[in-house]
Every structure is written in C-alpha cells, then in structure tokens.
Amino acid sequence: MLRTEGRSRGWRRAGLGAVLLIAQAVFASPVWADVITVTAQGTIPSTCGITLQSAFGPANLNANGSVNASALVNCNAPYQLRASSANGALKSVTAAPAQFNNSLDYSLSVTVPLDAGGQISATCASATLVSGASSCALSPASANGLSSGSGTSTSKTATLALQWTLPTSTRLIAGSYADVITITIAAQQ
User: Fold this and answer.
1) Which of 76, 81, 43, 45 is nearest to 155 (CA)?
2) pTM, whole model, 2 decimals?
3) pLDDT digits 0-9 by tens, 96-107
C-alpha cells in the first residue's frame, strides 16, 4: 500500500507541475508591439486604339461591288467607335456633264469582335458619315457612336466593308474616284 501511495503522490506532483507550467503560459505578461497598416493602391488607365492592318483593295466601279479592309482594335475599357467621310461618297474631280454623275454613294459596315464573345456592328450610308451627321451609329455626331456597351476588345480584328451599287438613271463619268474615311475610337465617358 505504501507503494501505491508513493506512486499517487508522484503523479500528483507531476500533474501539479504541468498545471503550473500551463498557468504561467496563460497568465504570462503580454508582449506589446506597434502595428502599422499599409494600403497598396494602383490605377490602370483606360486605353483605346485602332490600327489599320489592311487597306481597301482596288475597286472595280464598272459594276456593283465591295472592298474590305481590316483594323486592329485594342481597348481595355468599354468604347465608342465613329466614322467620318470627307466627301459623303466616292467622288471624281472630273466635272460631270448632263446624263453623267461624278459621285457614287456607298455604305460602310464595321464589325468588331468583343473579348467576352459576340460582336458589335453597324452599316451606314456614306451620306450619314459627313461632318455634323448623327442619323447612324457610326455618324460623327452620333450621341453614343457604335458602342461596345460594357464590352472590351483586346487585340481584336475589326472588319470594314465598303459596298456600292451603280446608279441606274445616270452613268459615272470616267476618272478616278476617292473618299477619305476616318475611323475614330475612344473609351466611353
């Protein structure tokens, strides 16, 4: 019996020692430290650009037809696209006598793929692309332009198509015909 008591006391002493160590750890005086908070911030500005990849090819104006061009669109924010025409038609500098015409109306179609899928597109008559016009999405004075909505286009190839139909009542005068089409793209405000 003595042995049993001796063992009990030993375990009691060991248990009491462990309790004292735990109590010291729990009730030890706290260590004080200074704390700072650092906030990291940055901004990525809206960038939007368009670069011509391939120009319109030569046009056969002896028949109805079309020519295509392409441009690279890079916009990291939603954007608006507009087009303007210097002449409002393909025009020749040659004066047109009676029964001839020196101006050929056309339509311009622009299609741009979006990063999230889908595309935006519009087709406008050349007369709606002159300065001050606003009746078509691409028109220079259009309130919203051809809008990407909430979409973006990063390294996307836009397709531009110029289509024309020859006039039936008058013929085109011989000569060279041209127009200057300017495409403008900008991040939405």
Assistant:
1) 76
2) 0.78
3) 999 999 999 999
Q: CA 98 to CA 96: how far, in whole Å?
A: 7
Q: Render pLDDT for 132-182 as a digit per residue (tens, 0 to 9).
A: 999 999 999 999 999 999 999 999 999 999 999 999 889 999 999 999 999
* Four-point Cα dihedral 66, 164, 161, 111, nearest 10: -140
Question: Which two tokens mark 179?
Answer: 């127009």
CB atoms within 10 A of CB 112: 24
Q: Tell how far CA 70 is from the center of its chain.
A: 16
Among candidate residues 132, 134, 136, the one with its CA nearest the CA of residue 124? 136
d(CA 105, CA 79): 28
| Residue 145, in any domain of the structure | yes
One-letter identity of residue 102: N
> How far, in Å, CA of 85 to CA of 111, rounded?
18
Q: How far apart are CA 177 and CA 100, in angstroms?
A: 14
Those residues with Cβ within 8 angstroms of residue 148's Cβ, 6 or more apart along the chain or in another chain: 75, 78, 79, 80, 81, 112, 114, 120, 188
Q: What's the rounded Cα separation, in Å, for the pair 10 and 176?
A: 114
Residue 60 belongs to what domain range?
Answer: 48-187
Is residue 163 assigned to a domain?
yes
Residue 42 lies in a domain: no
